[in-house]
Structure formats: structure tokens, C-alpha cells
Amino acid sequence: MINAITGLLGMAMFLAFIGGLAESIGAAPFVAIVVIIGSMALYDYYESIRDERQKAAAKTPQPNQEP
Fold it and tell me: Highest taxon of the source (predicted)?
């Protein structure tokens, strides 16, 4: 859970920083690069959280299911 919170905080700071750069520079190619890199970073964050939840679910003992 800590990884999700710190990851979200880090992602917000990263996106704010590169978003500010894109706004101040204003060149269309740079804005496109920022959008692509930002979306890649968000997708990686999503995959990281998903993998963490799957590992946590695998560690949880499942009750015996007898037919």
C-alpha cells in the first residue's frame, strides 16, 4: 500500500513538472513527447500496482473448497 501512495505522489510531481515544462516551452513536438512519456509513466504505474495486488492475493491463503 505504501508503494501505491508514494508512487501516486511521485507520479503527480513528475507530471506537474513535465507539464509545466511543456507549457513554458510551448513547442508542439515537445508537448507531444511529454504526452507520450506521461502516458507511458502512468501505464507503468498502473502495471506496478496491479502486479503488487496480484502478489498480495497469491500470498493470501485460500479456504479449502471441497465439492
Answer: Bacteria
